[in-house]
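Q: Second attempt. The first request was missing the SMILES, so the protein and zinc ion are both included now.
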Amino acid sequence: MSTDYGFCCLDCKDCYIVDDERNPDTVASLIMLADKLAELVVLDAALPQAVDLQVSAGYGRTNLCLAWFATHKGHKLEVIDEYGGFHPRCGKTYKVEGEKFTRYCKKKENHDGEACSDRSMFAWANHD
Ligand SMILES: [Zn+2]
Ligand SMILES: [Zn+2]
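A: Got both inputs this time. The predicted holo structure:
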């Protein structure tokens, strides 16, 4: 089973998973360049219509949605997987009273003193 990775804006609680991008390190590298990617939107708008500007990533070479980077320019971005877990993730196990199964923490590795949680970032985004 493979996992797709993408970006999560902590400021806006908005996540963007890149189809078939299975390397979290690639996503981390793109986050370092997020400001530059946002600038490409300006360049794209200035280019003649006959010219396409695309940045593709992942196994299937998916075109990145550059507008997403423009929307979240200067915001705090993190690597997230398609199941709503941060990368690298805490991953500690914990149990909730009355439940038989074990839960796995989806928060970021070495997160602050807050309790572990398996709430997906997407659920978090929807419920905050
Ligand atoms: Zn944002
Ligand atoms: Zn945790």
